[in-house]
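Sample intake sheet
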Amino acid sequence: MQTALEQPVLVLNRLWQAVNVIGARRAFALLARGHAQVVHHHEDDFRTFSMLDWIDFSVHNPPVEQMEMVRTPTRTIRLPRVILLTFFDKLPCKELKLTRNNVFERDKNTCQYCARVLPREELNLDHVIPRDNGGKTTWENIVCSCVKCNTRKANRLPHEAGMRLIRKPQRPKWRPVISLVLGNQQHEVWKDFLDVAYWNVELEE
């Protein structure tokens, strides 16, 4: 059974960008050393607390659930769910991979020719400019397509098949900063800080 000290805590850098997910035990160690502050959502705003301020806040705002608290011999401390590093302002360098699921995510599971939203198992990827015409496997030349439209377009340019894109394909602006550690760990209080998650295998040229 997972203890409170093993609960996940979202870590923000000094610029309030999500950079990691760590256990609560490690989060308390960073707080105790003054390397981080607790971030708490309060009345449509975010407040930051030092370790001592957070202990005082916990006294006046005790947690309700057992897994939201850590007990010491003398007090009960609320479990922080988000902490802000006081010195670190870098963002992990992660290149956004061109994967099948990333394309589906960018295009919102919507065929870029007929605008139908479908389950991913009913979708394909289409090279707007076919490979035979020199088309490359890039963000700007790959779109989500339903099987019907993919078959109709075949190995032609869209206008040659009497079709047109509903939007021009572009490289997404979101970043896969901590997607690999999210899984089922996401918490409601993290939603304002998380980048869109991404998936699996990079598409080959």
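Comment: The radius of gyration is 23 Å. The helical segments are 24-32, 51-60, 100-106, 147-153.
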